[in-house]
Amino acid sequence: MLKVGVLGAGHLGKIHLRLLQESPEYELIGFYDPDAINGKQVSEEFGYPYIENLNKLIEEADVVDIVTPTLSHFDCAKKAMENGKHIFIEKPITNTLEEAEELLNLQERYGVKGQVGHVERFNPAFMAIRESITNPMFIETHRLAEFNPRGTDVPVVLDLMIHDIDIILSVVNSEVKQINASGVSVISKSPDIANARIEFENGCVANLTSSRISLKNMRKSRFFQRDAYISVDFLEKKVEVVRMKDAPEEPGAFDMILQNAEGEKKQIYFENPDINMNNAIKDELETFANAINEDTKPLVSLEEGTKALRVALQIINSFEKTAV
């Protein structure tokens, strides 16, 4: 079992603490929170050992789970890696691209592993259909949330849209060519609603919309590729797949047949992939343990977390250009 220490005991940190304590892959040695009052309250309520000295926690752990505000991600990760510890770090990987790239250097220098908490990769709906998304050429995503003051210290792109950025980069095998975006601040000092259009070198186009001032919650992505339409509902954990194939010479009475302008006939049929429900946060943490034990590449590596951050920051920079 890997000895793990958690940095941060906020809303998400407490979820990590519970799942790590339950996991057979880890031995939870304790947690650190800079707010001593909160740390002691969490310890008294749930029984997790509160370690008041950050250096002591890092020293005793094999893995450091960083669930702190984004602004402190780099300092926490740097201290852990310099002590030879593996790191699990919540998204976004860091506050700046320079910090993320420095973590990549530290990872190589100290021979440790790192994984970024892009939890939607472990969403059971996405996992059920991931291998069927082969060459999407148009992608549309909507990630809408009701207003919650938690997380408004960063733009909606880093708060919400970055989930979809990571998913898109994981399925599009091409470099980003161009980004156009706009964002509007409604309640917060940073943009609360944003739209981005990402064009890739292979011709794929992704249109992303994120809002944290919506009247309803929605987390849907639609992937269009040759002969297939795939819809993933990350919130409801559902998948819809519509495919087309050459129509049989003698269609059945209930077959759905379309004929295009060239006279070609296609049959439409539906697929319903099996979805194996899971706890996505538990899976991402245990997958990281497996990567450490088996010396394999983490499913969401620091490199991939850096790529997602780079695109997110390009989108934010596009806001500034359109505001001029």
From TrEMBL:
Q: Which GO terms describe its molecular function?
A: nucleotide binding
* Domain named GFO/IDH/MocA-like oxidoreductase: residues: 156-216
Identify the residues that the record assigns to the Gfo/Idh/MocA-like oxidoreductase N-terminal domain, covering every copy.
2-118
Q: Which domain of life is it from?
A: Bacteria
Q: This protein is called what?
A: Gfo/Idh/MocA family oxidoreductase
Give the organism, scientific name: Lentiprolixibacter aurantiacus
